[in-house]
Every structure is written in C-alpha cells, then in structure tokens.
Write a structure and sequence with these properties.
7 helices; 0% strand; mainly alpha; 148 residues
Length: 148
C-alpha cells in the first residue's frame, strides 16, 4: 500500500487526539479529514495499521474469541469516546478475517476505526524503552509500504 503523505498527516492528527482521549480534538481532527475520498483513504490507512499491529502482537491474526476479548478491553479503555464493544468487535472481526468493514454512522461510529487503531498502537508501543506510539506507527507504516 502506498501511503499518501497528506492523508497520513491527517490520520496522525486524529490518532493523536484519540491517544490523548481528547473528545473535542478528536471531533475536530475527524472533521478535518474533509471529503469522502479523503475519509475513505484515512480509514483504509487506519485499518491497515490496526491489522498490522494485531498481526504483530499476536504473531498472526487473533482468533474470533481473542478478538471479542480485545474488543471488550478496548471499549472499556476507550469509553470516553462513546465507542461500543459491538462496534469494536465488528471492526476487529472484519479486519482479522479480511472481510469488508462496514462503517457506522454518527460521530462516535465515524471515530471507531481511529480510536481502535490509537488504542492498539498505544498498547503495543513500548514507551519504557523509548518507543512511543508515534514511533511505533512509523515502523508499522514503513512495513505496510514495503509489503506492497
């Protein structure tokens, strides 16, 4: 996947707002994505990052039961955002099986891919060793681009 630098910058802003659990900034960053084509590219990039993190952390895609447990954990950790466990589970089940992702409507639903990706990045990074989520994102994006 070739990553569009402009879209990547916008996604990074949305992810930063989600990592910092800043509702107002998340809404503004998500709104700044602009037109439908940019939103689609941003969601695709976010989902590719989420898939790569899931694959790396679990040394392969997690099972359906693992995804359900991960979804519950993410929904609990990110309840500030309004995402529901069912939304997270639907998204992660689709990612883990390679199925099409069905985007929800409403402000909380529109943010689900970004909130989930931000959570996965923050949880998988190792700040104690100097690897913050944004450094980990750099590595994941490099791997995504190298893969194709």
């Amino acid at each position: 996947m070739k990553i569009d630098d402009r879209v990547e910058g916008l996604v990074r802003s949305v992810l930063d707002a989600a990592v910092h659990k800043d509702t107002d900034r998340l809404a503004a960053a998500t709104a700044s994505l602009g037109d439908e084509a940019t939103v689609t590219k941003a969601v695709e990039l976010s989902l590719a990052v989420a898939a790569a993190v899931l694959f790396e952390v679990h040394e392969g895609m997690p099972s359906a039961d693992q995804v359900t447990e991960i979804s519950r954990t993410i929904a609990e950790q990110e309840r500030w955002s309004g995402v529901r466990a069912a939304e997270v589970d639907s998204l992660l089940q689709a990612i883990s099986t390679g199925s099409p992702v069905v985007a929800g409507s409403g402000s909380a639903s529109a943010a689900v891919p970004f909130v989930v990706t931000a959570n996965l990045l923050a949880a998988a990074s190792q700040p104690d060793e100097g690897e913050w989520w944004f450094n980990y994102l750099d590595k994941v994006e490099a791997a995504i681009e190298a893969a194709g």
